[in-house]
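Notes taken during the Thursday session

The instructor put the following on the board and asked us to keep it in front of us for the whole hour. The protein is WRP73 protein. We were told not to look anything up and to reason only from what is written here. First, the residues (448 in total):
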Amino acid sequence: MNFSELFKLSGLLGRFSPDGKSLASCVQHRLVVRDVSSLQIRQIYACLDQIQYIEWSSDSLFILCAMYKRGIVQVWSLEQPDWHCKIDEGSAGLVASCWSPDGRHILNTTEFHLRITVWSLCTKSVSYIKYPKACHQGVVFTKDGRYMAVAERRDCKDFISIFVCSNWQLLRHFDTETQDLFGIEWAPNGCVLAAWDSCLEYKLLLYSLDGRLLSSYRAYEWPLGIKSVAWSPSSQFLAIGSFDEKVRILNHVTWKKITEFEHPATISSKKTIVYKEVEKSPSVETERLSFPPTRELASSLFSTQSKYEISQVPVSLQYIKPVADRANPKVGVGMLAFSADNCFLATKNDNIPNTVWIWDIRKLKLLVVLEQLCTIQCFQWDPRQPRLALCTGNSRVYLWSPTGCMAVQVPGEGDFQIVSLSWNSSGDSMVLLSKENFCLCYLECEEI
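Then, after some discussion, the predicted structure tokens were revealed:
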């Protein structure tokens, strides 16, 4: 495993291009595009204000930079550096911006969610979608890029509209049986749309492409409900993380629950492997000591090393009792992710914040528990193989695969606190992000 030097960053804005060949990063109002393999700068673009969001087009030829405070989107071309595009929403304002799947249309959501404006880069035409709902996940595209679903709110009722992305024609418009629609998500095969209510009511609805209600699911009645939702890459399973600290798995045939995974504070099963992160200060031979010590020796003297040890069950995990009288209590399963091969599911229970749970989907049982020293900030699966990377806000990156797990210290001076990470589509590199810097991590295919 090799690491690049640290580069400046602002707003956690570091993104790989979809083809995996380029990396875009932001420093205030500047957009820097680097070649992933050599880290040579390909282009530097200057925007009109501080960049708050960036997104690559699907063909990796264009980059969108949104400046929400100014209500402006600027688009840059990698092939033609002299070409540029500016979209100004004016007094309507701007709260969200994204590419359409064809990479030639931009969807801007105006302030107060009054409308979505669809701008064409090719014909310079403009289309409008009215009444988009201000919710967690209100605009989603099918994986093949043919259809778009939009959550809407009209006359105090929730609706979903399905559009054809090729011409932005309305395909279906139907109301949903929700009190306060919170999010929508297409199955990867594009045949089923999941819609779920806010946490105040446990309700998940599944619709076909033509708007028919296929099934509805409710696990319980009164307590706080759904917190996170994730489809498996094969579309065979839908995982629902709830505030009751459980994950429920629905199957794609009957849309009924096939199992539920609990997240207890004590691991007692001998079939579960518990990896515990431990820190150890390195031992330095007294013969090597010189005063003042060299910079390399000083850094090794005061830095601690981390590794995993297998704990003997039963193991008690660090459990934080949620504060019941505060909004958004830190309780329940807030993070879910399936591995690319559909074999594993990684989860995080927010009131056991230092722990990642890895479930074997083939056997529907808990396989591994990773107990970290610090709170889990982010985890993500390798897009090519069952390999999970995670970070905990320190200068280490952690990797798990079925063959074992490891903790790797990012070399370099200064305090590099990794709060987010992202895999390259090729699976051979990651970008590690802190609030002020980023670096690239290069992996061998058979690493671990």
